Amino acid sequence: MVVESFDQADISFSIGTKRNVDRVYIILKDGREAVMTVSLDIDSYQRIEDSPSYQEKTVLEKNNFERAWSVQRYYGGKTVLLENKRKKFLICKEFLHGSMLANYLDDEGDEQLKMDTAVATGKMIANTLTKLNGIVVDSNPLNIIIIENDGKMLARYCDVERIECDPRSIALEVKRLGADFKGQETTLVNSIRQHYQGDLFK
User: Fold this and answer.
1) With a threshold of 0.85, does the pTM exceed it?
2) Is-contact 46 62, C-beta < 8 A?
């Protein structure tokens, strides 16, 4: 396997507080192409288990895309050892071609657009509840990507450090996220209820 060209771009835009995130694009000599998200912890850790990227790797290894489409495919990861014996973790995941949910939730935004994103986000949460028996902790508009294709919207998580399975905590996570939709909270909840297949969220 010979690399013909390589391109890297920062896609964290200094928004995240835990990781630097890059999009890596590789073209191989035989014409095949690969694109992925590569994240590296900003802080270093004495114990690699404390790394948010390592925690995400642990979740995604166990709860992969084949099990739940709402999360990214996990490609691999590596512990980076620093001179002071502290550690960072580098994680490689599927690149999601889309835009952060936060970009769709402008106060002056189109209500139909906001409604469509609420429905898509509800489907995503329902998939996570159904397949992983919980909700992603810190389900906020900066950790959700909206993908538009042929007039349809799909929401997917781009940050999955922990899955919360406690019903009370799930309800709180949904309530927090619903507040960001400003007027479409009911649409979000109805979409979750409509697409969820189980007894956890009723």
Assistant:
1) yes
2) no
For 90-119, how does the pLDDT look when each residue is reduced to its tens digit (9 = 90+)?
999 999 999 999 999 876 778 889 999 999
Give yes or no for a contact between 70 and 124, defined as CB atoms under 8 angstroms apart. Answer: yes
86: exposed, middle or buried (Cβ count in 10 Å: 0-12, 13-18, 19+)? middle
Q: In this structure, is the dihedral angle defined by the CA atoms of residues 121, 177, 52 and 49, taken in order, positive or negative?
A: negative
Judge residue 194's burial from the number of C-beta atoms within 10 Å of its C-beta, 0-12 exposed, 13-18 middle, 19 or more buried: exposed
CB within 8 A of 202, min separation 6: which ones? 193
Using DSSP bridges, classify how beta strands 135-136 and 163-164 pair: parallel, antiparallel or unpaired: antiparallel
Question: Which residue is associated with the tokens 């810190």?
Answer: 138
Instruction: Quote the CA–CA distance of 17 and 147 in Å, as a whole number.
Output: 24
Q: Round the average pLDDT of the chain to a whole number and report it.
A: 89
**Tell me: the pLDDT tens digits for 21-74?**
999 888 877 878 888 999 999 999 999 999 999 999 999 988 777 789 999 999
Considering only CA atoms, which of 139, 189, 145, 142 is closest in space to residue 164? 139
Helices of type H across the chain: 52-62, 111-132, 167-179, 185-195
Q: How far is CA 7 from CA 81, 84, 141, in A?
A: 25, 31, 27
